[in-house]
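chain and backbone:
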Amino acid sequence: MKFRDIFGFSSAEKGIENLHTREMDAFADNVVFELKTLISSAITRALEERESRYMRSILEESFFSLESLVIKAMDAQTSRELEDFLSNHESINPQFRAQFFGQVVQREYRSTRGASVRVSPGLVPIFEVNPQSLDTATEDESFILSLKGRKVRFEVRAALDGPTRKTPITTPEIVVTPPRGTAMSQALGSGTKTTGSRVQITLHDQHGNTEKSVALPALLGRETATAQGLAVGSGVDVAGTYVSRRQLVVFEALGQIYCFVPAEASLTCSTDQGEVLRPNTLHRIDPGSPLRLLTGVPMDTLVAPGQRENRAEYPRIDISTGSRATPHADATPRPRAVR
């Protein structure tokens, strides 16, 4: 056995001594763990105070913004330790404060009612440091705390702004005339409104049960008649949460009544037999056989949700033609003699 093996080091380690110092990582990990819990609780309290003023349907279509986040130390020792920790690291890395609190604050928080709080990537919590205004624990208080366990070292206050609509209405959403060349524009036409066939439409939505006699062609959807101001065809408003602005087009062609879901729609419908309407696919409405449609089917999956009994969220649309529309001649007209 060689001499260096007796003392437990090799020639490469000769002249190096490892010192056992206090680990700052443990302090940082404890602070991150405690702040994560307190920040989540503070945002939850602020969110519960605001979301109680709004319906669930509004909360699902909007979000709150975290306006400010204030962290205050509860005692002088904690204040000094955290400020020293931040300032020491900022002297080496000026972006350390933002990077450190980036581990503490999540990008988004959500509640069970559908409300959400979004955090701007540039938001840095405000750390209140004023050791002179904080009391140092006495010897008796320190002894009591040692018996009770860990003391809460921070207090967090969150301020929210909003709500703000998740998908604000932009210019393409309120175009008066549908774009040329699409199936919807061809069905609605490009001329003035005409008095052709009519259909009976019964809506079961947020307004209850409403029956209307509608002239064709017609466009059904959320805020269709009031917001989009269609220049051609009839607009029928369907009040519900899961309804597209351009949900359904009903029109007449060659004496038959058809309907289809435009490709511009974000949601589609399903029949009472469970058949899902695919975009730009014609469905004939036979006389005496009303078509019953239920909204709220995602266009990306084309799979109908299981629970759709709430008509305020998932409206039902019943379309009936009553009697057969005026027949159109399909044959070539017979030529007449010209005198």
